[in-house]
Description:
Layout: H1 6-17, E1 36-40, E2 46-52, E3 57-62, H2 68-74, E4 79-82, E5 89-92, H3 93-100, H4 113-118, H5 129-133, H6 137-150, E6 154-160, H7 162-177, E7 182-188, E8 194-195, H8 196-201, E9 208-213, E10 228-229, E11 233-238, E12 241-244, H9 248-265, H10 269-274, H11 278-281
Parallel strand pairs: 3-6, 6-7, 7-9, 9-11
Antiparallel strand pairs: 1-2, 2-3, 4-5, 8-10, 11-12
Helix pairs in contact: 3-7
Amino acid sequence: MKPLKRYQYERYAILCKLAYPPTFDHTVYGFSRNGRHEITDRWGRTIIRVLWGEKKEVVVVFKGSQNLWDWLLNMACLPKRQGKSQNRYYIHWGYHFLLSQKSKRQSLYQAPTDLFESQHIELSQASDQPQFGDLSVYQHLEKVLHPLIAAGKKVSLTGHSSGGAMAILVADRLSAQHPEAIKRVVTFGQPAAGLRSFKRLYRLNHCTYRICCDLDIVTFLPPIPFMYWHVGKLLWLHEGRIYENSPTPYRLYKSLVSWLLRPVTYHYMRKYIRNKDFFDKH
Length: 282
C-alpha cells in the first residue's frame, strides 16, 4: 500500500472543506472550466461534486451532514442487506438512504461535449429534467462517471463525516463494475459504513485511507461495539504524530488520557516554545 503524500492529503482536505460553501472556483485547483458536475439531494442541495481536468483523474467529493435531519440519519444504523448468497453483506441504512434518495435537479455544470460525444454518450443539458429526474443520487453519479471512466480517467473519492461513509459505499459499488477504475479513497472524520461482512468483502483496502483527528467522536459512530467496522488504513493524527491502524479501544483510551492530562501538559516548556510565533504578531 503506497503511503499518502502530504500534497495529496492537503488537496483532498481542502476539497472536502470546499464541499460545504454553495460556490467556489474549482479552476484554482487545477480542474477544467467545464470539468465540474454537481449532484443534488431530494431538497435540491448539492451533495456530491464531480471534478476533473486534463489529468487522468476524476475527483468525487461528498459533502457531510448539513442539518439536523442529516445528523439523525447517522443514528439510523439498522443494517441494510446488500448482495446475494455468499456475497451478502450489510451496510448502514442511513448512508444507503442518502445514496438511494432521488436527485431533485440537474447540475448547472456539464462536461465538455467533445469528451462525451467521443464515447458516444451524451450528458443531458441542465434543463433536460426527464433524463435525470427519476434517478437516485447514486444512479446520477454513475451516469456522470461512466463516460469519464470510458475515456481512461481514474476515480478518486473523498468526503468528510457522513460524506466519507458515502465515499466508501460508492467506491465499493463502482469497483464491482470497474475493478481498475478506482485510484484512491480518502475520508476525514468518517463513521463506519458497514458490518463485519462489509469489511470482509470490501475490495479497496489497498487504496483506502481513513483520516482521524484526535478524539473525533464521529469516528467512533455508530456507538455499537463490535457491530460496525471500519475499512482501509487508519491514519490517526494525534499529539503531532501520525499513528497507523491503531485499534479503536487503544485510540479511545489514549485520547481520554490525553484529555485528562491536558491541563498539566500546558505547563511544559515545549508548549511555551511552540507559541513563540505569537510575539511576531504582538
